[in-house]
Amino acid sequence: MKEALMERLKAFLHRKDNSTLVGSPASQEEIAHAEQQLNVSFHEDYSHFIRTFGGAYAGLAVHAFSNGSSLGNETVVDLTLEFREQFKGLPFAEVLRTGYVISMDGSGNPILINQSGQVFICDHDTGEMELIADSFEALIEEQFCEW
């Protein structure tokens, strides 16, 4: 991820009043174990983010293994496996099978990264997928705003 964006995130997330928005950094072992469990490879931007912040708020809740307390306890593995099971009959099931869920919108729709690194939101009511960013970095650049 671009250094300027990472510096903005660090300045925001490491403020004392934002301590519930940042988790514990993910270890390389946690990442490797999750990739094995999910049979995926995390894209470098997502890995960089979670190695730095763990599960953290960056304009949306980005789940990892140890999330900020405001984000809840669901890990990227929990979310991915849950949505793979829940939506196995829907058209985007194949993308879920080969991708991983990093977040949810306010309506319970999964936000996932596919094999190519693109970010999609999947509508559980219609079964449709919508491309929302070409990469994790682009998603964070678009979503993140300091307050």
Q: Which regions have little confidence, pLDDT < 50, spanning 5+ residues?
A: none
The general outline is globular
Query: Can you count the helices?
Result: 6
Structural classification: alpha+beta
Oligomer: single chain
Estimate percent helicity: 25-40%
Rounded mean pLDDT score: 95
Order of helices and strands: HHHEEHHEEEEH
Q: How many angstroms does the end-to-end distance come to?
A: 21 Å
Q: What summary fits the major beta sheet?
A: 4 strands, antiparallel
Strand order of the largest sheet: 3-4-5-6
Say how many strands there are. 6
What fraction of residues sit in β-strands?
Answer: 5-15%
Radius of gyration: 14 Å
Short description:
The chain is of the alpha+beta class. It has six helices and six strands; from the N terminus they run αααββααββββα.
Structural features, described:
With 147 residues, the chain is α+β, with helices and mostly antiparallel strands. It contains six helices and six strands, in the order αααββααββββα. It has helices at residues 3-13, 28-38, 44-53, 76-86, 93-98, 136-143; strands spanning 56-57, 61-62, 100-104, 110-113, 119-122, 129-133. A four-stranded antiparallel beta sheet has the order 3-4-5-6. Strand 5 and strand 6 form a beta hairpin. 35% of the residues are buried.
